[in-house]
Design brief:
InterPro entries: NADH-Q_OxRdtase_suN/2, ND/Mrp_TM. It is a multi-pass membrane protein. Its EC number is 7.1.1.-. GO terms for molecular function: NADH dehydrogenase (quinone) (non-electrogenic) activity; NADH dehydrogenase (ubiquinone) activity; quinone binding. The chain is mainly alpha-helical and 487 residues long. It has a domain of 218 residues. A two-stranded antiparallel sheet has the order 1-2.
């Protein structure tokens, strides 16, 4: 494939990279007064990248999906689906950010630029079909995330969150690299298709250890048990808009690369990694549910909710089927909407002195003080719990259906039973907001960007979200098919 075609297929990443570099110069010359302009232009660049990627999504059929730069990068329906979701999630994060950061005196133009470069790294990750490309994209995304976690540099908790994330992230990267080196040592290549051919006759013990280490490194990125220990501390310590970002876009990218690396180079050896995924899925569901029960911090509770949801997503991967993969993509879309809506609601709740609401006592009686936000939170919490007829129920349903059709009935049954535990702490939100006595007051004004994200999230997770089912199922099926067309 010639360079012109390679440059075309990587147009979204190139466009975002150029935009980031230009905005970096604008930021350096303009200083603090151009921060809002830089934010708007970054959102516009991401929207343009989403439009371009959507064009590829509709134009590239599975056989026509192109490998760029000698097989280091692939533009297909799977990567396009994940990228569009990532770009839209980052745009939503930019929309809900300015008021919060400005109120805390930390609204600087570096913030949208870091999100922009993080999006470039995540784009490379989901399109990577070579271990080297995967690692480069992963590190580009991670470096942005480390800085974002400690963006409130005068806040001890934010600095601590950034340091913890950096140390544990470096450890996970080392584990991942060690696994990659083992795979390369036994396969003699870093290309996914060539790795699959190298192991077609069977997989050696050393290569199996490589798979285990790679899965362990990626489990850290998606905050799956037992590599979840950083999540509650980082989510609580980082600024809330950053936490919303961590819980959405990077999660999509990490799950996507986990799916690609499991279902492309190691598609012929499902039994070698399925038991690891099954353990991580069940452990994440149980630990996420039980860990959230005793939490008083709203952000820590949502961190454990994120761990819990990762467990349900991994059930789809354990099936190793096209239906399971499609279910994972559907779940990711609904999960991102629910997560962004939940964190946006938290951003909108502030005391008169500007202090953000952080505990359950802060939101006591919220229904009488801010009924619109309280009702939106009710929809989001019930949807996260998987209570019908809300759209979150459909996310869990498609995953469990895929597990049953793959004859993983025990896994589905345990997952369904464990999901009941999670309903407890979601219902606690509703109980405190609607039945406890109100304490204090909240700021009456919220920026239009936060209202747009919250209302859209509330509409999508409501029963009205089922009108999107036809398109969502079709897009998810197309994305999943691109991982299985060689099978």
């Amino acid at each position: 494939m010639d360079y012109a075609t390679s440059l075309y297929l990587t147009g979204a990443e190139i466009g975002l990279s150029i935009s980031g570099l230009v905005l970096l110069l604008v930021s350096a010359w303009g200083g603090a007064r151009v921060t809002r302009l830089v934010t708007i232009l970054a959102a516009a660049a991401l929207f343009g990248a989403a439009i371009f990627t959507g064009h590829l999504f509709t134009e590239l059929s599975v056989p026509a999906a192109g490998d760029a730069f000698g097989g280091l990068y692939r533009a297909d329906d799977f990567s396009s689906f994940a990228k569009i979701l990532i770009y839209l999630a980052v745009i939503a994060c930019l929309m809900i950010t300015p008021k919060y950061l400005a109120a805390n005196g930390i609204y600087r133009s570096e913030y949208p630029i870091l999100l922009l470069f993080g999006a470039v790294g995540m784009s490379m990750m989901v399109s990577a079909v070579d271990l080297i490309t995967l690692y480069i994209g992963l590190e580009l995304s991670s470096l942005s995330s480390y800085v974002l976690a400690s963006f409130a540099r005068d806040d001890v908790r934010s600095s601590e969150a950034g340091l913890k994330y950096f140390i544990l992230g470096a450890l996970a990267s080392g584990i991942l690299l060690y696994g990659m080196s083992l795979i390369y040592g036994f396969a003699g290549t870093t290309d996914y298709a060539a790795i699959r051919l190298a192991f077609i006759g069977g997989i050696e013990t050393g290569a199996l250890f490589g798979i285990v280490f790679v899965l362990a490194g990626l489990a850290f990125k998606i905050a799956a048990v037992p590599f979840h220990m950083w999540t509650p501390d980082v989510y609580e310590g980082a600024p809330t808009p950053v936490t919303a970002f961590f819980a959405s876009a990077p999660k999509v990218a990490a799950v996507a690369i986990l799916m690609r690396i499991a279902l492309e180079p190691f598609a012929d050896h499902v039994d070698s990694w399925r038991q690891i995924v099954v353990f991580a899925a069940l452990a994440s569901i149980v630990v996420g549910a039980l860990g959230a029960i005793g939490q008083d911090s709203l952000k820590r509770l949502l961190a454990y909710s994120s761990i819990n949801n990762v467990g349900f997503i991994l059930i789809g991967l354990a099936t190793a089927t096209q239906l399971g993969t499609s279910a994972m993509m559907t779940y990711l879309v609904i999960y991102v909407v629910m997560t962004l809506g939940s964190f946006t609601a938290l951003l909108m709740l502030r005391a008169e002195d500007g202090r953000p609401f952080e505990t359950f006592s802060d939101i006591a009686g919220l229904a009488t003080r801010k009924p619109a936000i309280a009702w939106c939170l009710l929809l989001l919490m019930f949807s996260l719990a998987g209570i019908p007829p809300l759209f979150g129920f459909w996310a869990k349903f498609v995953v469990f259906r895929a597990a049953v059709e793959a004859d993983l009935i025990a896994l589905a049954a345990i997952g369904i039973a464990a999901s009941v535990i999670g309903a407890f702490y979601y219902l606690k939100f509703v109980k405190v907001m609607f039945f406890d006595e109100a304490e204090g007051s909240v700021v009456k004004t919220s920026p239009i960007g936060q209202w747009i994200v919250l209302i859209l999230a509330g509409i999508i997770v409501s029963p009205l979200g089922y009108f999107l089912n036809g398109l969502l199922d079709a897009w998810s099926s197309d994305a999943a098919a691109s991982l299985f067309y060689l099978v």
